[in-house]
Protein backbone atom coordinates (compact mmCIF):
# COMPACT_ATOMS: atom_id res chain seq x y z
CA UNK A 1 0.00 0.00 0.00
CA UNK A 2 1.42 3.41 -0.94
CA UNK A 3 1.02 6.19 1.57
CA UNK A 4 0.12 9.65 0.29
CA UNK A 5 2.49 11.97 2.15
CA UNK A 6 0.61 15.00 0.81
CA UNK A 7 -2.62 14.22 2.63
CA UNK A 8 -3.81 17.30 4.44
CA UNK A 9 -3.74 16.40 8.13
CA UNK A 10 -5.07 18.55 10.97
CA UNK A 11 -3.65 17.98 14.45
CA UNK A 12 -6.04 19.54 16.95
CA UNK A 13 -4.02 20.43 20.07
CA UNK A 14 -0.62 20.40 18.32
CA UNK A 15 1.01 22.42 21.12
CA UNK A 16 -0.04 19.97 23.83
CA UNK A 17 2.09 17.08 25.05
CA UNK A 18 0.38 14.47 22.87
CA UNK A 19 -0.39 16.68 19.87
CA UNK A 20 3.23 17.86 19.63
CA UNK A 21 4.44 14.23 19.77
CA UNK A 22 2.02 13.29 16.97
CA UNK A 23 3.40 16.25 15.00
CA UNK A 24 7.01 14.99 15.52
CA UNK A 25 5.99 11.49 14.45
CA UNK A 26 4.17 12.56 11.27
CA UNK A 27 6.90 15.02 10.30
CA UNK A 28 9.56 12.33 10.76
CA UNK A 29 7.54 10.01 8.50
CA UNK A 30 7.59 12.67 5.77
CA UNK A 31 4.03 14.01 5.98
CA UNK A 32 4.44 17.56 4.74
CA UNK A 33 0.92 18.97 4.65
CA UNK A 34 0.05 19.35 8.33
CA UNK A 35 -2.46 22.00 9.37
CA UNK A 36 -2.40 23.51 12.86
CA UNK A 37 -4.13 26.27 14.80
CA UNK A 38 -3.31 27.49 18.29
CA UNK A 39 -6.09 27.81 20.86
CA UNK A 40 -5.94 31.59 20.41
CA UNK A 41 -6.35 31.26 16.64
CA UNK A 42 -9.21 28.75 16.81
CA UNK A 43 -11.26 28.08 19.93
CA UNK A 44 -12.59 24.59 19.28
CA UNK A 45 -15.56 25.16 21.59
CA UNK A 46 -16.80 27.77 19.08
CA UNK A 47 -19.08 25.96 16.64
CA UNK A 48 -19.17 28.69 13.98
CA UNK A 49 -15.39 29.11 14.00
CA UNK A 50 -14.80 25.35 13.75
CA UNK A 51 -17.33 25.09 10.91
CA UNK A 52 -15.61 27.89 8.97
CA UNK A 53 -12.18 26.33 9.56
CA UNK A 54 -13.21 22.89 8.27
CA UNK A 55 -15.08 24.37 5.30
CA UNK A 56 -12.08 26.37 4.17
CA UNK A 57 -9.30 23.82 4.84
CA UNK A 58 -10.69 20.73 3.02
CA UNK A 59 -8.80 18.29 5.24
CA UNK A 60 -8.20 14.57 4.66
CA UNK A 61 -7.41 13.41 8.19
CA UNK A 62 -7.81 14.67 11.75
CA UNK A 63 -5.98 13.76 14.97
CA UNK A 64 -8.14 15.03 17.84
CA UNK A 65 -5.62 15.65 20.65
CA UNK A 66 -7.14 18.93 21.91
CA UNK A 67 -8.88 18.65 25.24
CA UNK A 68 -9.18 20.29 28.60
CA UNK A 69 -7.06 18.06 30.82
CA UNK A 70 -5.94 18.27 34.43
CA UNK A 71 -5.29 16.46 37.69
CA UNK A 72 -7.68 15.61 40.53
CA UNK A 73 -7.65 19.13 41.94
CA UNK A 74 -8.57 20.78 38.63
CA UNK A 75 -11.23 18.14 37.88
CA UNK A 76 -12.80 18.67 41.31
CA UNK A 77 -12.68 22.45 41.12
CA UNK A 78 -13.88 22.94 37.53
CA UNK A 79 -16.23 20.00 36.76
CA UNK A 80 -18.52 22.17 34.62
CA UNK A 81 -15.62 23.31 32.43
CA UNK A 82 -14.30 19.76 32.10
CA UNK A 83 -17.58 18.39 30.79
CA UNK A 84 -18.61 21.43 28.72
CA UNK A 85 -15.29 22.21 27.04
CA UNK A 86 -14.53 18.61 26.19
CA UNK A 87 -18.00 17.85 24.82
CA UNK A 88 -17.97 21.05 22.77
CA UNK A 89 -14.46 20.52 21.38
CA UNK A 90 -15.08 16.94 20.33
CA UNK A 91 -18.64 17.49 19.08
CA UNK A 92 -17.53 20.42 16.95
CA UNK A 93 -14.45 18.71 15.56
CA UNK A 94 -16.04 15.32 14.87
CA UNK A 95 -19.23 16.76 13.38
CA UNK A 96 -17.54 19.41 11.23
CA UNK A 97 -14.96 16.85 10.10
CA UNK A 98 -17.86 14.72 8.87
CA UNK A 99 -19.74 17.62 7.26
CA UNK A 100 -16.63 18.78 5.40
CA UNK A 101 -15.83 15.29 4.07
CA UNK A 102 -12.95 14.15 6.32
CA UNK A 103 -12.72 10.37 5.90
CA UNK A 104 -10.38 9.48 8.75
CA UNK A 105 -10.25 10.80 12.27
CA UNK A 106 -8.55 9.60 15.46
CA UNK A 107 -10.12 10.51 18.79
CA UNK A 108 -7.91 10.45 21.89
CA UNK A 109 -9.54 9.39 25.12
CA UNK A 110 -8.14 8.20 28.41
CA UNK A 111 -8.11 5.21 30.75
CA UNK A 112 -10.50 7.06 33.10
CA UNK A 113 -13.37 5.96 30.83
CA UNK A 114 -13.28 2.60 32.64
CA UNK A 115 -15.21 1.88 35.84
CA UNK A 116 -13.44 2.57 39.11
CA UNK A 117 -13.61 -1.12 40.02
CA UNK A 118 -12.91 -2.59 36.56
CA UNK A 119 -11.01 -5.89 36.64
CA UNK A 120 -7.25 -5.45 36.10
CA UNK A 121 -5.82 -5.23 33.52
CA UNK A 122 -8.68 -3.17 32.10
CA UNK A 123 -9.82 -4.46 28.74
CA UNK A 124 -11.84 -2.57 26.16
CA UNK A 125 -14.89 -4.68 27.18
CA UNK A 126 -14.96 -3.00 30.61
CA UNK A 127 -16.43 0.18 29.12
CA UNK A 128 -19.88 1.02 30.59
CA UNK A 129 -19.90 -1.94 32.97
CA UNK A 130 -19.87 0.07 36.22
CA UNK A 131 -19.59 3.37 38.07
CA UNK A 132 -16.77 5.75 37.22
CA UNK A 133 -14.24 7.31 39.59
CA UNK A 134 -16.26 10.29 40.91
CA UNK A 135 -13.41 12.83 40.87
CA UNK A 136 -13.08 12.86 37.09
CA UNK A 137 -16.53 11.60 36.10
CA UNK A 138 -17.46 14.71 34.04
CA UNK A 139 -14.25 14.41 32.01
CA UNK A 140 -14.68 10.64 31.60
CA UNK A 141 -18.31 11.04 30.49
CA UNK A 142 -17.16 13.47 27.78
CA UNK A 143 -14.50 10.99 26.62
CA UNK A 144 -17.06 8.15 26.52
CA UNK A 145 -19.34 10.42 24.48
CA UNK A 146 -16.44 11.02 22.07
CA UNK A 147 -16.02 7.30 21.47
CA UNK A 148 -19.77 6.95 20.95
CA UNK A 149 -19.81 9.96 18.56
CA UNK A 150 -17.19 8.28 16.39
CA UNK A 151 -19.03 4.94 16.52
CA UNK A 152 -22.41 6.46 15.76
CA UNK A 153 -21.10 8.43 12.79
CA UNK A 154 -19.38 5.29 11.48
CA UNK A 155 -22.57 3.28 11.90
CA UNK A 156 -24.80 5.84 10.20
CA UNK A 157 -22.42 7.23 7.56
CA UNK A 158 -19.63 4.67 7.25
CA UNK A 159 -21.10 2.98 4.18
CA UNK A 160 -22.71 5.99 2.54
CA UNK A 161 -19.86 8.46 3.08
CA UNK A 162 -16.84 6.16 3.50
CA UNK A 163 -15.88 7.59 6.88
CA UNK A 164 -13.74 5.69 9.36
CA UNK A 165 -13.40 7.40 12.77
CA UNK A 166 -11.31 5.55 15.35
CA UNK A 167 -10.54 5.97 19.06
CA UNK A 168 -7.51 5.21 21.21
CA UNK A 169 -7.40 5.16 25.02
CA UNK A 170 -3.93 5.81 26.40
CA UNK A 171 -2.67 4.92 29.85
CA UNK A 172 -0.80 7.57 31.91
CA UNK A 173 1.55 9.48 29.60
CA UNK A 174 4.73 11.41 30.30
CA UNK A 175 7.46 13.11 28.32
CA UNK A 176 8.48 16.43 26.80
CA UNK A 177 5.73 19.04 26.98
CA UNK A 178 4.23 17.62 30.19
CA UNK A 179 2.64 19.85 32.82
CA UNK A 180 5.14 20.45 35.65
CA UNK A 181 2.92 22.73 37.72
CA UNK A 182 3.93 22.31 41.41
CA UNK A 183 0.37 21.66 42.67
CA UNK A 184 -1.44 20.35 39.66
CA UNK A 185 0.62 17.80 37.79
CA UNK A 186 0.55 14.03 37.30
CA UNK A 187 2.87 11.75 39.28
CA UNK A 188 5.88 11.60 36.91
CA UNK A 189 6.25 15.35 36.25
CA UNK A 190 5.62 16.01 39.97
CA UNK A 191 8.40 13.58 40.93
CA UNK A 192 10.79 14.97 38.29
CA UNK A 193 10.32 18.46 39.68
CA UNK A 194 10.69 17.35 43.29
CA UNK A 195 13.83 15.28 42.74
CA UNK A 196 15.39 17.96 40.56
CA UNK A 197 14.73 20.62 43.19
CA UNK A 198 16.03 18.30 45.95
CA UNK A 199 19.21 17.67 43.93
CA UNK A 200 19.77 21.39 43.35
CA UNK A 201 19.21 22.12 47.07
CA UNK A 202 21.36 19.16 48.22
CA UNK A 203 18.34 18.00 50.26
CA UNK A 204 19.11 14.82 52.26
CA UNK A 205 15.62 13.30 51.84
CA UNK A 206 12.55 13.40 49.64
CA UNK A 207 9.28 12.28 51.26
CA UNK A 208 6.58 10.94 48.95
CA UNK A 209 2.88 10.71 49.77
CA UNK A 210 1.39 7.28 50.45
CA UNK A 211 2.93 3.87 51.02
CA UNK A 212 4.67 3.57 47.65
CA UNK A 213 2.93 0.23 47.01
CA UNK A 214 0.21 1.16 44.46
CA UNK A 215 1.05 0.08 40.92
CA UNK A 216 0.65 2.24 37.85
CA UNK A 217 1.43 2.02 34.15
CA UNK A 218 3.30 4.73 32.24
CA UNK A 219 3.84 5.25 28.53
CA UNK A 220 6.32 7.66 26.94
CA UNK A 221 4.46 10.17 24.81
CA UNK A 222 6.39 9.43 21.61
CA UNK A 223 5.26 5.82 21.94
CA UNK A 224 1.69 7.15 22.20
CA UNK A 225 2.24 9.15 19.03
CA UNK A 226 3.60 6.09 17.25
CA UNK A 227 0.55 4.10 18.37
CA UNK A 228 -1.72 6.88 17.10
CA UNK A 229 -0.21 7.00 13.60
CA UNK A 230 -0.05 3.18 13.56
CA UNK A 231 -3.77 2.87 14.36
CA UNK A 232 -4.65 5.55 11.84
CA UNK A 233 -2.68 3.71 9.14
CA UNK A 234 -4.25 0.28 9.66
CA UNK A 235 -6.39 -1.12 6.89
CA UNK A 236 -10.03 -1.05 7.83
CA UNK A 237 -10.47 -4.82 7.77
CA UNK A 238 -7.50 -5.20 10.10
CA UNK A 239 -8.81 -2.56 12.54
CA UNK A 240 -12.24 -4.17 12.40
CA UNK A 241 -10.70 -7.56 13.24
CA UNK A 242 -9.94 -6.34 16.81
CA UNK A 243 -12.94 -4.00 17.34
CA UNK A 244 -16.72 -4.03 17.03
CA UNK A 245 -19.04 -1.41 15.62
CA UNK A 246 -20.27 -0.51 19.12
CA UNK A 247 -16.98 -1.16 20.89
CA UNK A 248 -14.56 0.43 18.53
CA UNK A 249 -11.84 1.84 20.80
CA UNK A 250 -8.37 0.41 21.40
CA UNK A 251 -6.27 0.63 24.56
CA UNK A 252 -2.71 1.92 24.33
CA UNK A 253 -0.50 0.88 27.24
CA UNK A 254 3.11 0.13 28.01
CA UNK A 255 2.26 -3.50 28.77
CA UNK A 256 3.35 -3.66 32.41
CA UNK A 257 3.12 -1.55 35.54
CA UNK A 258 5.42 -0.65 38.43
CA UNK A 259 5.03 0.42 42.06
CA UNK A 260 5.28 4.09 43.01
CA UNK A 261 8.33 3.10 45.08
CA UNK A 262 10.05 1.68 41.98
CA UNK A 263 9.00 4.73 40.00
CA UNK A 264 10.41 7.10 42.62
CA UNK A 265 13.80 5.35 42.48
CA UNK A 266 13.76 5.43 38.66
CA UNK A 267 13.01 9.19 38.65
CA UNK A 268 15.71 9.81 41.28
CA UNK A 269 18.19 8.01 39.02
CA UNK A 270 17.10 9.94 35.91
CA UNK A 271 17.49 13.27 37.69
CA UNK A 272 20.75 12.36 39.44
CA UNK A 273 19.30 12.82 42.94
CA UNK A 274 21.36 10.80 45.43
CA UNK A 275 19.66 11.46 48.78
CA UNK A 276 17.21 9.26 50.67
CA UNK A 277 13.65 8.47 49.57
CA UNK A 278 10.93 7.81 52.11
CA UNK A 279 7.15 7.48 52.14
CA UNK A 280 4.43 9.04 54.28
CA UNK A 281 1.82 6.29 54.77
CA UNK A 282 -0.57 8.70 56.53
CA UNK A 283 -1.33 10.22 53.10
CA UNK A 284 -3.83 8.57 50.67
CA UNK A 285 -2.71 5.96 48.17
CA UNK A 286 -5.52 5.90 45.57
CA UNK A 287 -6.41 2.63 43.81
CA UNK A 288 -4.01 -0.23 44.47
CA UNK A 289 -3.53 -0.97 40.79
CA UNK A 290 -4.43 0.54 37.39
CA UNK A 291 -3.18 -0.91 34.19
CA UNK A 292 -4.55 -1.51 30.75
CA UNK A 293 -4.93 -4.62 28.71
CA UNK A 294 -3.33 -3.62 25.41
CA UNK A 295 -3.35 -7.10 23.89
CA UNK A 296 -5.65 -6.11 21.02
CA UNK A 297 -3.28 -3.40 19.83
CA UNK A 298 -0.32 -5.72 20.41
CA UNK A 299 -1.98 -8.37 18.24
CA UNK A 300 -2.32 -5.80 15.49
CA UNK A 301 1.47 -5.38 15.58
CA UNK A 302 2.21 -2.40 17.85
CA UNK A 303 4.18 -2.49 21.10
CA UNK A 304 5.84 0.24 23.17
CA UNK A 305 9.51 0.84 22.33
CA UNK A 306 10.76 3.34 24.90
CA UNK A 307 11.80 1.90 28.28
CA UNK A 308 10.89 3.77 31.44
CA UNK A 309 14.58 4.53 32.04
CA UNK A 310 15.06 6.04 28.56
CA UNK A 311 11.77 7.90 28.70
CA UNK A 312 12.44 9.42 32.12
CA UNK A 313 15.87 10.56 30.99
CA UNK A 314 14.36 12.26 27.90
CA UNK A 315 11.62 13.83 29.99
CA UNK A 316 14.17 15.13 32.49
CA UNK A 317 16.40 16.61 29.78
CA UNK A 318 13.36 18.38 28.32
CA UNK A 319 12.38 19.62 31.80
CA UNK A 320 15.77 21.24 32.37
CA UNK A 321 15.72 22.63 28.84
CA UNK A 322 18.40 20.45 27.22
N1 LIG B 1 -1.35 13.43 29.60
C1 LIG B 1 -1.79 12.20 29.86
O1 LIG B 1 -1.27 11.50 30.74
C2 LIG B 1 -2.91 11.61 29.06
C3 LIG B 1 -3.28 10.32 29.36
C4 LIG B 1 -4.31 9.76 28.66
C5 LIG B 1 -4.95 10.48 27.68
N2 LIG B 1 -4.58 11.74 27.36
C6 LIG B 1 -5.34 12.42 26.31
O2 LIG B 1 -4.53 12.98 25.31
C7 LIG B 1 -5.12 14.17 24.81
C8 LIG B 1 -4.12 15.30 24.87
O3 LIG B 1 -3.64 15.44 26.19
P1 LIG B 1 -2.31 16.26 26.54
O4 LIG B 1 -1.73 15.61 27.74
O5 LIG B 1 -1.50 16.44 25.31
O6 LIG B 1 -2.96 17.65 27.01
P2 LIG B 1 -2.33 19.12 26.88
O7 LIG B 1 -0.84 19.06 26.93
O8 LIG B 1 -3.05 19.97 27.87
O9 LIG B 1 -2.77 19.56 25.41
C9 LIG B 1 -4.09 19.83 25.07
C10 LIG B 1 -4.09 20.86 23.98
O10 LIG B 1 -5.45 21.15 23.61
C11 LIG B 1 -5.59 22.54 23.48
N3 LIG B 1 -6.96 22.96 23.75
C12 LIG B 1 -7.68 22.75 24.87
N4 LIG B 1 -8.90 23.34 24.76
C13 LIG B 1 -8.93 23.91 23.53
C14 LIG B 1 -9.90 24.66 22.83
N5 LIG B 1 -11.09 24.96 23.38
N6 LIG B 1 -9.61 25.12 21.60
C15 LIG B 1 -8.40 24.85 21.04
N7 LIG B 1 -7.44 24.13 21.65
C16 LIG B 1 -7.71 23.69 22.89
C17 LIG B 1 -4.66 23.12 24.52
O11 LIG B 1 -4.34 24.45 24.24
P3 LIG B 1 -4.16 25.50 25.47
O12 LIG B 1 -3.12 24.90 26.36
O13 LIG B 1 -3.74 26.75 24.80
O14 LIG B 1 -5.51 25.56 26.12
C18 LIG B 1 -3.45 22.18 24.40
O15 LIG B 1 -2.56 22.60 23.41
C19 LIG B 1 -6.35 14.43 25.68
O16 LIG B 1 -7.50 14.00 24.99
C20 LIG B 1 -6.14 13.57 26.89
O17 LIG B 1 -7.35 13.09 27.40
C21 LIG B 1 -3.55 12.32 28.04
Characterize the structure shown.
This protein is an alpha/beta fold and 322 residues long. It is built from 11 helices and 13 strands. The protein has helices at residues 17-29, 47-57, 72-77, 79-99, 137-161, 187-200, 221-233, 236-242, 260-271, 295-299, 308-319; strands spanning 9-12, 34-35, 61-64, 104-108, 164-170, 172-174, 205-209, 215-216, 218-220, 249-252, 258-259, 276-280, 289-290. The strands form 4 sheets. Strands 2-1-3-4-5-10 form a 6-stranded parallel β-sheet, sandwiched between helices. Strands 11-8-13 form a 3-stranded mixed β-sheet. Helix 5 (137-161) links the parallel strand 4 and strand 5. Helix 6 (187-200) crosses helix 9 (260-271) and helix 6 (187-200) packs across helix 11. The model has no long low-confidence stretch (mean pLDDT 96). Bound molecules: NADP nicotinamide-adenine-dinucleotide phosphate. NADP nicotinamide-adenine-dinucleotide phosphate is lined by residues 13, 15-19, 39, 43-45, 65-69, 85, 89, 108, 110, 170, 172-173, 186.
Amino acid sequence: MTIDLNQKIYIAGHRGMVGSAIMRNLTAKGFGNIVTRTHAQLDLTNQAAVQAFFESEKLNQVYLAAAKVGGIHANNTFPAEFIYDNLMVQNNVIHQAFVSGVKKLLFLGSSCIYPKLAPQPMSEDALLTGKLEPTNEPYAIAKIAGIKMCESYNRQYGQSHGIDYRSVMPTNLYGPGDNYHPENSHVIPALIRRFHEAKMANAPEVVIWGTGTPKREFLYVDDMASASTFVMGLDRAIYDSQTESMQSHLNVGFGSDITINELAHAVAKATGYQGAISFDPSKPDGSPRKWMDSSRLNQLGWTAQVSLEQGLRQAYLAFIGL
